[in-house]
Design a protein that fits this description.
Blueprint lengths: L10 H4 L17 H17 L15 H24 L4 E2 L4 H7 L7 H20 L9 E4 L4 E3 H22 L2
Parallel strand pairs: 1-2
Antiparallel strand pairs: 2-3
Length: about 180
């Protein structure tokens, strides 16, 4: 298995993920909203099955609860980024240290039912926003603090890989 250089974000849009198999680059922009809604249902299923809880399997792997909190925050943060891209000219995005957020927001201490409710709401808001994007709006730019430049279409495809991948992570922890 060839593992991509994770410091180079472009692999997400050019290569199917060697772990979860999702091909963000082959995903049409118009499909992302559907995938977001589908992903929220997967997380609801994990909650129903009792798979969302604290407790890391090892020191370097998040717990299912931490993954759920992170996915909720991905939907929130990227919705804000896409909203800015649709209303501002080439907005810059601040860096997001995901591990620092997990610690600061005490992901491991959050209530699974609340988190999945918030994740579902955030996914619905993201999907509704994407449903409204059409034509040239998909090409509006934005950029990260590290200089990575995105279009609405590429940031949407880049974003949806994360929740899909983390659902795969949780499924792997709960066979």
């Amino acid at each position: 298995m060839i593992v991509p250089d994770t410091k180079d974000w472009t692999w997400v849009l050019t290569t199917a993920c060697p772990e979860c198999g999702f091909d963000a680059g082959g995903c049409p922009s118009a499909e992302v909203a559907r995938l977001v809604r589908e992903n929220a249902r997967v997380w609801q299923g994990f909650l129903h099955d009792g798979a969302i809880g604290p407790g890391r399997p090892d020191d370097s792997t998040w717990s299912p609860l931490e993954y759920a909190c992170h996915v909720r925050d991905v939907y929130r943060r990227f919705r804000t980024r896409i909203e800015r891209m649709l209303t501002e000219d080439d907005p810059p995005f601040e860096n997001w240290n995901q591990d620092a957020t997990a610690t600061a927001d005490r992901y491991e201490e959050q209530v699974p039912q609340v988190v999945i409710g918030e994740l579902t709401d955030a996914a619905q808001a993201m999907a509704s926003l994407l449903d409204q994007v059409s034509g040239p709006a998909w090409q509006r730019p934005g950029r990260r603090s590290d200089g990575a430049s995105f279009r609405v279409a590429t940031i949407a495809s880049y974003m949806v890989h994360d929740p899909i991948h983390h659902a795969w992570d949780v499924a792997k922890q709960n066979p």
